[in-house]
Give the backbone structure.
Amino acid sequence: MDTSSTLRFAADLRAVIEAAGFKQTDLVKRLTVSRSSLSDGLTGKSLIPMNVLKEIIKLCKADESAWMKRWAEVHQDRRGSKNKPTPPAGADLAKIISQALGTQKGLPSGATVEIVIKIQVP
């Protein structure tokens, strides 16, 4: 997930809130949001829900269309990063095995390796 755009969004939103003279505790009292959800959104841990953003923007008298556009862009960035292909799980295992065997080039294509795992249960 693209955390940098989420972090920038959260930092800019905090600046708007502070400029309007509000604190997080003020917002929790005035908005339909939990303290933890608001905190996660304002620190960039998660993207603040659109309905909460609308309430904040209205309360702070900020430009709603600009903020909705930014929210949509960040939301899309986050969705796009979730759709990126991930390497196959065996890729890391092959690297570990080749390192254990002392080879720098990795395993030859089509190589078979037998792995024995022993687990001792107390």
About this structure: DSSP finds six helices and no strands in the chain.
